[in-house]
Design a protein that fits this description.
The complex is a heterodimer. Chain A is mainly alpha-helical. Helices cover 62% and strands 4% of the residues of chain A. Chain A has a five-stranded parallel beta sheet, with helices on both faces. Helices cover 80% and strands 0% of the residues of chain B. Chain B has six helices and no strands. The longest helix of chain B is centred in the C-terminal third of the chain and has 32 residues. Chain B is elongated and about 60 Å long. Chain B starts with a helix and ends with a helix. The chains are: A mainly alpha, B mainly alpha.
């Protein structure tokens, strides 16, 4: 039947077929007939009744009396259902939990049901993201309209996509990556009619950038907590299957749009990619590190170890937050053993994707256990000694050693901030990493004083080379990995910074920037490796947090950097980025540029750059300040492509310093490295 | 025709059930779901209810018999919640009412009140079963 809604939907979807519901689309000529509903209720009587009612509504019904079973159905056939109806009280799994899972993993609308009509419970349903709450006994009339939720969701998704696209348009390179799942694609198609209009709006907005986007593209500040949620969601879904819509749902954050998530995801992917790249090299190394910690990290790393760190580093997140997140991460980790398929990350890191793949990152951490994990994984789960090792590596990065701080006093500032429970360290590392990466290659060197004299970089990705420089950092890659994909990225780029501390900072310039930018406004300049920026670029993807850094760096290069890596990326970023550094800048510029290229997938020789970063994080941070600022600038450039996400970047940037400056410089709308004041 | 006779009887019995408060409109929802493809849908669902509710009743009885020092009212309430939800889904009005009463005593921590009320619950549960069984018999004959 063609209801008004369906009409609208149909018009939106160019490709919607009439009769058969396309997976994900659910819009057909007969819509809502044929709507694929999954109903879950442990009460057999209710289940039977609901099934019959739904069938009478001409829906296609699948019933399950167990939540786990239902989840399996959903997982096995991601696009096989349009909507889920679930009871609240079930013996094997709480209905709200199922709601969360479905939202995160499958991004389907979920309706809750219960005989309990108390406001508290209904509210809980809402806060958990249920699209509706039905009081039992359910009447068929209530079920007749559930299709509206499907349509609404699609519409929103579509709209979000639209925004993303427009956003990316601005960035230029950052085109919205095609939706990961068919749903997105279809929405894209569907939204075509809307695009032109939206695009225009978006662009206008983009120009204003900051703020104004409340309507269209609200700037989202990717706080540590938020990022943590994000990473958790991504891990839960699996990096490959993590589509913004689902992530959004899983995260269940009011006010967050799919667009925000999408751009963030993009950066994260890049970040992860970076990390994986590094990790690949260092896989050997990482394994060493990660081995023991993997288990612990697994879950944590996925948690957002990176993010947290990055965020923390960026200064966006107060240390406490990091701790919290870490804790959360840990908590999560504890509960769920490495949910994230890190393995994927590794692949991701092959650096093909310029985009940051944070998701991967986190995953990687788990799986890779390789370097990246160190960085990411460092969070909470890290055992003390592991953390220590990570720290060390992180330290090498210097910048982001925020985490390191906790363990190793080196990073000092950064770490201290983050030093909160070990879990923090990882975050710091990540953040640091990002910072590190941002540190301009020039910085890298001085900073790397720790141990990584320019040679440190090579380690970044790969092996704990960084550690070498740092000396103590055994962990190296993990921290750095974050931004720097192990090995590859670091190879030259600034990643070295991270290597020890695991702060991906170094992710070879390119990467770092991105990561930094997103997370930490940490001065991108941290990428000591900037020289080899190209390599860093790869890193870019890794550390989306770093990206932010990059962006922010522009602004205050020096001042911020000094803050010490721990200074929270923002500071660094700003300082470094202003690319005022002449030397640095030039280097940065080149680095950034290189980063871009690198980020795109090659982190090639970040070794040199990485080395720089490896130097003691603490030092690095300082150095970065001085030297690297410029790097940051270019890092931003790296990122812009990738980060279409303004939210993150802008948020970070802003936070960092009041970043408006940074952004403008970088032109981030997300991450516009174009503006890098090279 | 005899069909008419049985039909009339069935209709009368049905009306009585509603009038006397044994059933509420939810039962009508079930009847509306019945169609040619599922001619015995209502009976089928009621049977399902009685099978499942027997288990719940057993559990409540066990919970009520718990002599431990710390009586778990929450658990009791939880089981009752399930039972109540199930009963309401078939439109068992009187049972539902007794369940509500039970829950009130439960929330008040009144074990004696719970036990007493539960006897009522079981009684209503048995009565409705009897009445519905004869009603269904009539409807089958009326077909």
């Amino acid at each position: 039947m063609n209801l008004a809604g369906s009409q609208a939907v149909k018009s939106m979807s160019v490709t919607s077929s009439s009769v058969s519901r396309r997976s994900g689309d659910g819009v057909s000529d007969q819509f809502p007939a044929g709507l694929r509903v999954l109903v879950v209720d442990d009460d057999p009587t209710c289940l039977r009744i609901l099934e019959k009612m739904l069938k009478n509504c001409l829906y296609e019904v699948t019933k399950s009396n167990r939540a786990e079973l239902a989840l399996n159905y959903l997982r096995e056939n991601k696009n096989g259902y349009d909507i889920v109806i679930s009871d609240v009280h079930m013996p094997d799994m709480d209905g709200f939990k199922l709601l969360e899972h479905v939202g995160l993993e499958m991004d389907l609308p979920v309706i809750m049901m219960s005989a309990d009509d108390s406001k508290k419970v209904v509210m809980k349903g809402i806060t958990h993201g249920a699209v509706d709450y039905l009081i039992k006994p359910v009447r068929i009339e209530a079920l007749k309209n559930i299709w509206q939720h499907v349509v609404r969701k699609k519409k929103d998704e579509y709209k979000g996509k639209d925004y993303e696209q427009t956003g990316s348009v601005e960035d230029g390179e950052q085109h919205q990556k095609p939706p990961e799942d068919s749903e997105y694609s279809s929405s894209a198609n569907e939204g075509s009619w809307k695009n032109p209009k939206k695009r225009k709006d978006e662009e206008d907005e983009a120009e204003e950038r900051d703020d104004t986007s409340t309507l269209k593209k609200p700037r989202v500040v990717w706080s540590v907590e938020l990022h943590q949620q994000f990473v958790t969601a991504v891990n839960h879904l699996g990096l490959d299957k993590a589509v913004p819509k689902k992530i959004l749902e899983l995260m269940n954050v009011p006010g967050l749009t799919r667009e925000n998530v999408a751009s963030h995801l993009q950066k994260y992917r890049l970040y992860l990619r970076r990390l994986s790249g590094v990790s690949q090299h260092q896989s050997g190394l990482n394994n060493a590190f990660m081995g023991p910690t993997d288990a612990t990290f697994g879950p944590i790393s996925s948690l957002n170890g990176l993010d947290l760190q990055a965020l923390a580093a960026s200064g966006q997140l107060p240390p406490q937050s990091l701790a919290t997140i870490q804790a959360a991460a840990l908590g999560r980790a504890n509960k769920s053993p490495v949910p994230v398929p890190l393995v994927d990350q590794r692949n991701l890191f092959s650096f093909e994707n310029p985009k940051l793949r944070f998701g991967e990152d986190s995953q990687q951490l788990n799986n890779n256990s390789k370097q990246i994990n160190l960085l990411h994984g460092i969070p909470t789960n890290m055992e003390p000694k592991q953390l220590a090792t990570l720290r060390q590596s992180a330290q090498s990065f210097g910048n982001l050693n925020m985490q390191l701080h906790s363990q190793s006093s080196q990073s000092g500032s950064l770490l201290t901030q983050m030093s909160q429970p070990q879990s923090r360290t990882p975050i710091l590392n990540e953040i640091n990493g990002s910072h590190v990466s941002t540190l301009p290659s020039s910085l890298g060197q001085p900073i790397l004083s720790q141990a990584l004299p320019s040679s440190v970089l090579p380690r970044n990705g790969i092996e704990n080379v960084r550690g070498g420089t740092y000396g103590s950092v055994s962990q190296p890659s993990s921290a750095l990995d974050f931004s720097v994909n192990p090995g590859t990225e670091f190879s030259g780029n600034s990643f070295p910074l991270m290597s020890n501390s695991g702060i991906p900072i170094l992710t070879s310039k390119g990467m770092i920037q991105e990561e930094v930018n997103s997370e930490m406004k940490v001065p991108r300049g941290y990428l000591p490796n900037y020289d080899t920026f190209d390599e860093l670029n790869q890193n870019r993807s890794q550390d989306w947090s770093m990206q932010n850094v990059g962006s922010t760096f522009d602004v205050s290069q020096h001042s911020n950097l000094q803050g010490s890596l721990g200074v929270s990326p923002s500071i660094l970023v700003q300082q470094g980025f202003s690319s005022n550094h002449k030397s640095e800048q030039s280097r940065n510029a080149s680095v950034s540029k290189a980063a871009f290229s690198v980020g795109d997938g090659r982190i090639g020789n970040s070794s040199s750059s990485g080395q720089q970063l490896n130097s003691s994080p603490a030092d690095i941070s300082q150095r970065i300040k001085a030297e690297r600022l410029p790097n940051m600038g270019f890092q931003n450039t790296l990122f812009p492509e990738q980060f279409g996400q303004d939210d993150l970047m802008s948020a970070l940037l802003k936070q960092q310093e009041g970043t408006g400056a940074v952004e403008s410089e970088f032109g981030f709308d997300g991450y516009h490295l174009d503006n890098l004041p090279v | 025709m005899e069909g008419n006779h049985f039909q009339r009887q069935a209709a009368y019995t049905r009306k009585t059930l509603f009038d006397q408060g044994y059933l509420d409109e939810q039962f009508i929802q079930l009847e509306d779901l019945q169609d040619d493809a599922n001619p015995n849908f209502v009976e089928e669902v009621v049977k399902l209810f009685y099978t499942d509710s027997a288990r719940l009743i057993r559990n409540i009885d066990l919970a009520l018999a718990d002599n431990s020092s710390h009586f778990d009212f929450e658990k009791l309430d939880d089981i009752m919640h399930q039972f109540k939800g199930s009963s309401s889904s078939i439109g068992a009005k009187k049972i539902k009412k007794e369940c509500t009463q039970f829950q009130e005593y439960c929330n008040a921590g009144n074990l004696e009140g719970c036990t007493r009320t539960f006897q009522q619950v079981k009684q209503e549960h048995a009565t409705l079963k009897r009445k519905l069984e004869s009603y269904f018999q009539l409807t089958r004959q009326a077909r």
